[in-house]
Each structure stands twice: as C-alpha cells, then as structure tokens.
Amino acid sequence: MPPLNAVRAFEVAARHVSFTKAAAELNVTHGAVSRQVALLEDWLGVALFHRTPSQLSLTEEGREYLNEVSTALDRLVNASMHVMQRAAPVVLRVNAPPTFTMRWLIARMSVFQRKRPDVEIRLTTSVAPPNFQENTYDIALRGQQGPLNNCRSIPFMTEIIIPICHVDLQETLRLAHPRDLAAHTLISYATEPYAWSEWLTAAGVPDLKPANILSFEQMYFALQAASEGLGLAMVPLFLAIDDIIAGRLCVPFGPLGAKRRTYYVNSIAISKAQTLNVDFCEWLQQEGRDTEQSITAWAASQGWTL
C-alpha cells in the first residue's frame, strides 16, 4: 500500500495544481504538502509533477494517477458515509402535552421501543398548536376538534372530559347531585379544554357557586391536587382511568355533562421518515383502541354508556 496521507496530499495538490492551495484545504503548511508528494513520488519511483520556479504542472504519469486516485478516494468516502449512516440512530422527535406525556404516553413507550428497537424517541412537551415550520419535531400529538389544515392528522383516541375526585371525598361528603358542589372546591387550570362553567351549564346548574376555587397552571397539578383530596378536577378520563380502576379516584356524577374531543397524531404531509411515522401512528392507534376498550369495559361495569 502507498502511504495514504501522501496519496491524499497528492490528490488535493493535483486537483488545484498548487501546493499552496492544497495546504490551505488540508490546513497544513506548503512544505508539508511538498514533503508528502515527494514521499509518494519516491515510493512510486516516478515524478508526478514538473516543478519550475514559476509553475507547477502534472506529468503524464501524474495525470493518470490523479484519475485513478480521485475515483478510489471518492469510493472510500461513499463507503464510509454509508456505514456511518447505517450505524447512526434513527431519531423520531415527538411533541405532546405535558400531562398527556407523563400520565399516558411514557407509560406505553416500551411497547413501541420493543417493536422498533432501532429508533431513538426524543420527547418534548407543549400545548401550543403544532407548527412544523418553526419547531424541530416530526410528530405532534394534540387533543383537537378536528384535523388540522396543511397537516397529516390521524385520530387515535377519543377524549372524554368529566369531573373526578378522590374516593374519600365521595365517601365522606356524598356527591349525589351537581348542586352538592356548592359545598366543595373546584380545581381548575389554565390549559383546561373544558371549563367548569361549561360543565355546570351542561349539568343543569349554570348559576352554582362553589365553596372555593383552586387554580393551577397545568393539568398535571390539578390532577395531582384531586388525587390528594383537595377538590374536584375536570380532566380527560383516559388520564385517570388507571387510578379509577385501582380505586384511588372516582367519577362522582358518571357520564353527566361529559365533553368529547379527539386526540390526533399530526405530522407534515411529506416526511423523510414516512415509514417510521406510519409505524408510530399505527402503534398509537392500537394503544388508543386498547385504552378506549378499558374505559368502555369499566363504564359498563358501572352501568354507564359512554
């Protein structure tokens, strides 16, 4: 094998027909390039350049060698890039609301990772409308009233929003009718998709005034406050269903006044990771169906139809 550093120095110098320009490209000195070319010429036993005080030019052997060396180096670069790309992780950037991510998505991610162990999921959170031009994510999960414009929007789960509370609150202070909320604390949060005023109107008590109102910035804090028995919170049923089935939370008024909304997986219409996006969407749809079936089975055990 010829000395490869010398071959590289020759290829750059021959391409520019200049040791000075080669030195700038390789970030070395003019003398270093000259020494490497001389080393290669000594190894080959032929002159590759005609050198005069005012001009540098390739010999016939130099021109022939340049053609072969350039092709070989190009193949080496392409082979290296191919291996590097195959070795690099496949990344899927997913953005979703914070509470949804903590209470539902993360708990189910292991199923997708077993299905696609080659994929690295990078999760970020937001409740803002998806904007694929200004944000660096491939997929955005949101509760929506319908598909988004200029987006590939696929529904994967129905969101049913109703009041929930700690079981102790229901057992010690019976909540038989919505008007009983006049003696209780209602928990609200800034990002709520269904306000208490809307639910009270749907429940037939639009003028009811609760004993107290406890306000938070995020749904997660409202759900945690309800879990601690501080009052009643209006949250999507699928976020609380595990605690409800376990007997920690309850739905005091059943499906009364429930609001429905759909969760969508949104992505740009044309994606470089189209196959990966399809796999992720199919997995989400299956998880959504499983969650809905759990909720339907639980509701049936209560004698409710959701």
Quick tags:
single chain, 306 residues, alpha/beta, Arc Repressor Mutant, subunit A, D-Maltodextrin-Binding Protein, domain 2, 2 domains, 9-stranded mixed sheet, two-stranded antiparallel sheet, 10 helices, 11 strands, 46% helix, sequence-specific DNA binding
Description:
- The protein has two domains: 4-87, Winged helix-like DNA-binding domain superfamily/Winged helix DNA-binding domain (Arc Repressor Mutant, subunit A); 91-306, D-Maltodextrin-Binding Protein, domain 2, CATH 3.40.190.
- The protein is α/β, with parallel strands linked by helices and 306 residues long.
- Helix 1 packs across helix 2, helix 1 packs across helix 3 and helix 9 (237-245) crosses helix 10 (274-301).
- The chain is built from ten helices and eleven strands.
- The strands form two sheets. Strands 3, 4, 5, 6, 7, 8, 9, 10 and 11 form a nine-stranded mixed β-sheet that branches.
- It starts with a helix and ends in a 5-residue tail after the last helix.
- The radius of gyration is 33 Å and the shape is rod-shaped.
Report a brief summary of the structure.
One of its GO terms (biological process) is DNA-templated transcription. The chain has 306 residues and is an alpha/beta fold.
Strand content: 15-25%
The residue ranges in which pLDDT falls below 50 over 5 or more consecutive positions are none
Radius of gyration: 33 Å
Could you tell me the number of beta strands?
11
How many structural domains can be distinguished in the coordinates?
Answer: 2
Largest beta-sheet details: 9 strands, mixed
Question: Helix tally?
Answer: 10
> So what's the overall shape?
rod-shaped
Average residue-wise pLDDT: 90
**In percent, how helical is the residue content?**
40-55%
What structural class is derived from the secondary structure elements? alpha/beta
User: N-to-C SSE series?
Assistant: HHHEEHEHEEEHEHEHEHEEH
Distance between the termini: 76 Å
* CATH classification class of the largest domain: Alpha Beta
CATH topology of the largest domain: D-Maltodextrin-Binding Protein, domain 2
| Second rung of CATH, namely the architecture of the largest domain | 3-Layer(aba) Sandwich
